[in-house]
Amino acid sequence: MDHSFDVNSLNPDMIDKKRSNKLASSKMLSNIAQIPLVSQHPEVYEPCDDSFALVDALLADRTNLLNLQPRFCMEVGCGSGYVIASLAIMLHQGCSGAQYFATDINPQAAETTASTLEAHGVHAEIICTDLASGLRKRLAGMMDVIVVNPPYVPTPEEEVGCEGITASWAGGENGRKVIDRILPIVHSLLSEKGWFYMVTLTANNPSQICSMMREMGYASRIVVQRSTEEESLHIIKFWREHMEKKGSGSWISQFPLLSFWRSSGGSSS
Amino acid sequence: MRLLTHNMLACNIKGVTNGYPLRLEAEKWVEKEVNFNADFLRSVFPKIEWPALVGAVRALGCHDLLPQDAPNPSALDSDDDFLRRFHRALLQLHVEEGALVCPETGRRFPISKGIPNMLLHEDEV
Q1: Which of A39, A187, B80, B101 is the least buried, fewest Cβ under 10 Å from its Cβ?
Q2: Which family does it belong to (chain B) (predicted)?
Q3: How close is the nearest chain A Cα to the Cα of B26, in Å?
Q4: Can you state the angle between helices A206-215 and A177-189, rounded to 10 degrees?
Q5: Residue A141's pLDDT band (cuts 50, 70, 90)
Q6: pLDDT digits (tens, 9 = 90+) for B51-62
Q7: Torsional sign, CA A126, A132, A137, A143
Q8: Which B-chain residues 21-60 have CB contacts (< 8 A) with chain A?
């Protein structure tokens, strides 16, 4: 007797049941935040190409993240909460003990993140603060994962750190004003095995950012590269270089980043 | 805000040297079920400032939840009752409304809808 599967031979009820099961499971198994469940506020940055690229980078690295078994994860500048919710969802199954922190300088963003997390049934501790102010001393060296989608748009200096949504994108000269403040903070928060993911724009001079991080002892690689009509985005991952020497074997796709920048991004400044 | 976060927060005003622990004033708090993870609790225990945690649970009126003195770390392996209490104190008690008060300056940082607001005024940065 031939038992090969043929959808057409199933009765319609069965097909409906299969379909609804599939829908239900796809919703349950969705491993990132769902846009309809992300809260909105006129003064809070909505998930956009840069947010999607950052989440795609985390997804691309998900197996490595699960192997890392992070204990503490943090997003600096959480905005709508789309990224931290996605991180918590994608690690939910494999790292049940992980704790998440999220900060934003905009009180409305902090509240929006709270709603987004609640809608997805995940939790992060939210603190309304400037970058990691108030947390830096006690959390020093404890963060295993830090993600940042910084305000990277080149703007006049006076727009940096303004109230409301402007703070989410205004980056000052070359879009570097806030990024340059973030780097030493990340350096102090990151654990020995910690990983740092950051969104950058070509105008931010990513090669120089990588050089600055290298001086602090970090290796780097591009996890996602994406060009939109308006901008060219790179999601860069940083980790302490000595980890590499231990030969964890998880850096297969690594390539010499600085030479990449030299060959492709030399005309940006 | 969980008490884990209270344990990690310090006053960030420029020039303040004794800004920890922040005194907790809780107008409203709730308890929420959180998955119990013994490995996490054991790994985070050495990072916790015990007196600050005890002060925080007492600010919520839970006077008998934790012992005044930090237990010997071996209790984490042998004393399941202690581990459950530690779990409850650190992760399950959420302060919804209240304030964090700097012990040095008396400056109040409000907690609203479970979110502490550590933003500084211009003259404090």
Answers
A1: B80
A2: Belongs to the TRM112 family.
A3: 16
A4: 30
A5: very high
A6: 999 999 999 999
A7: positive
A8: 34-35, 37, 39-40, 43-44, 47, 49
Average pLDDT of the segment spanning B41-55: 96
Any domain includes A10: no
Asked if ipTM goes beyond 0.90, one says: yes
Domain that includes residue A203, residue range: 40-264
> Which tokens belong to B91?
């992760």
pLDDT-derived band at A9 (thresholds 50, 70, 90) equals: very low
In chain A, which residues have their Cβ closer than 8 Å to the Cβ of B117? 107, 110, 128-129
CA–CA min distance A127, chain B (Å) = 5
Q: What is the CATH number for A53?
A: 3.40.50.150
Q: Is A118 on the interface with B (CB under 8 A)?
A: no
Could you tell me which residues come within 8 angstroms of residue B122 by beta carbon, excluding any fewer than 6 positions away? none
Alpha carbon of A147: minimum distance to chain B alpha carbons (Å): 19
Q: What is the CATH number of domain B3-10+20-124?
A: 2.20.25.10
**Residue-wise pLDDT tens digits, A164-214:** 899 899 999 999 999 999 999 999 999 999 999 999 999 999 999 999 999
If we measure between CA atoms, which residue out of A219, A79, A49 comes closest to residue A147?
A79
For chain B, what are the domain ranges? 3-10+20-124
